[in-house]
Specification:
The N and C termini lie far apart (90 Å). About 2% of the residues have low confidence. Strand 1 and strand 2 form a beta hairpin. A four-stranded antiparallel sheet has the order 1-2-3-4. Strands 5-6-7 form a three-stranded antiparallel sheet. 48% of the residues lie in helices and 10% in strands. The radius of gyration is 35 Å and the shape is elongated. The protein has three domains: 94 residues, 2-Layer Sandwich (Double Stranded RNA Binding Domain); 106 residues, Orthogonal Bundle (DNA polymerase, domain 1), CATH 1.10.150; 190 residues, Intergrase catalytic core (hpI Integrase, Chain A). Helix 5 crosses helix 6 and helix 5 crosses helix 13. It has 411 residues and is of the alpha+beta class.
Length: 411
């Protein structure tokens, strides 16, 4: 039976220690606050441990806590050590809960904001955001950083490792830095799955040796302004068709077979029939003012409704016409002492490669949503159940994107 009563506890005001029995006591501090303490002896040493403050911990609860701790003593367990272990488990569980609530997207946004001031180039933060949003977010954006595995990283990198080596390396490096930051914040442990040396280098070929022959040679967007200046000096159907291909980011086959009946200059729209589209669906292309000016300047031929008619009646110019234009431009630039019009593997660029140029620019230089960029390329943006609910073609957002692209191309 304890010595203290609830009434006594309320009336205690003189600083000191008041015994309840069996090692349980309450201490009254000079400031009037009261704390429960359990005194016990273990391995010949006298020790004390706090059980909480009064009245948050009442008399009944304090006695129960004291009884539980003495039971541990009888089993040869140090109550203080048991308390520390319990707190560590609770802390780990809380940390686990917090880490699951903070996603890769959250950590990457914090990382960008923290380093923004140290980046000399003001566009650097936007490029970070764009590349991670385009390539990483669809796969790991909503995952907690401690859930991200090597398999996730490979799923991000493999589709672009050969075709967009420079972009892929940037994406990998940026993911690695974000995950390092997450580890520093205690949000994940263990090896960084995006680390190259000693990890991913065992699973992916060096980017310099990756096979790229299956991909269309593309011009880096940083070279586009110089290229357009050279293209503007050339006249003829193939040069005009090439410029329209670049400005609309369409496939060469779609441009070459374009018909005046498909074009609405007033509405600034070009509707490509489903039978000419790879996805088998009508594709509406918003036309920028630059494209409208290009179309208005095209010659028209009586009895021929094609935008780019060839020498054979009812047939457009051939795909080779654009390719030959590019090869002649490459040779001419080399003659002038330039480096030609080539990709990073020293291959002469192709007209189709400008779609990759557009996509890289949109990812790294703009903040348009991935769906807007993909729909501008007439790519499928949803599958399965999601596709059943996808109704919008995001025309107005694509119109803004293509206007910005035209400005960039013409700048």
């Amino acid at each position: 039976m304890g010595k203290l009563t609830a009434k006594q506890l309320d009336s205690l005001s003189t600083p000191g220690t008041y015994e309840d029995g069996e090692g349980l006591r309450i201490q009254v501090k000079p400031n009037g606050k009261k704390y429960w303490v359990l005194r016990f002896q273990l391995a010949g040493k006298r020790r004390e441990m706090g059980l909480g403050a009064y009245p948050a911990i009442g008399l009944k609860e304090a006695r129960q806590k004291s009884s539980d701790r003495r039971r541990l003593l009888r089993d040869g367990i140090d109550p203080l050590q048991a308390r520390d272990t319990e707190r560590a488990v609770q802390l780990a569980a809380e940390q686990q809960r917090k880490s699951k609530a903070i996603t890769f997207q959250d950590v990457s946004a914090d990382y960008i904001e923290a380093h923004r001031a140290s980046w000399k180039n003001v566009k650097h933060a936007q490029q970070w955001t764009n590349t991670l949003t385009t390539y990483a977010a669809p796969i790991i954006g909503d995952l907690a950083t401690n859930q991200i595995t090597t398999e996730h990283i490979l799923n991000i990198l493999k589709p672009i490792w050969a075709s967009k080596a420079e972009t892929a390396n940037r994406v990998r490096n940026r993911i690695e830095l974000v995950l390092d930051a997450a580890k520093a914040r205690g949000l994940r442990e263990g090896e960084n799955p995006a680390r190259w040396r000693g990890h991913l280098d065992k699973l992916l070929p060096p980017s310099s040796k990756a096979k790229r022959t299956q991909n269309h040679p593309a011009l880096p967007y940083s070279e586009l302004s110089r290229f357009i200046q050279a293209l503007n000096s050339i006249e003829g159907q193939s040069a005009y068709a090439l410029k329209m291909t670049i400005l609309t980011a369409c496939r060469t086959s779609e441009v070459l077979a374009a018909n005046w009946s498909e074009v609405d200059l007033k509405a600034k729209l070009w509707s490509i029939p489903a039978e000419r589209m790879k996805a088998g669906k009508v594709h509406t292309v918003p036309l920028s003012d630059t494209v409208i000016a290009l179309l208005q300047g095209l010659p028209r031929f009586p009895g021929n409704s094609l935008l780019f008619p060839g020498t054979r009646k009812g047939r457009p110019i051939s795909n080779m016409a654009m390719l030959m234009t590019l090869r002649r431009m490459d040779a001419k630039d080399l003659e002038k002492g330039g480096k030609g019009w080539r990709d990073s593997n020293d291959r002469v660029i192709t007209a189709h490669g400008f779609r990759s140029t557009f996509r890289d620019w949109a990812a790294e230089q703009t903040n348009y949503a991935r769906e807007v960029c993909e729909l501008s390329l007439a790519h499928v943006v949803a599958n399965g159940a999601e596709a059943a609910y996808w109704r919008s073609d995001l025309l107005e957002k694509r119109r803004a994107l293509m206007a910005d692209w035209a400005d960039f191309v013409s700048s």
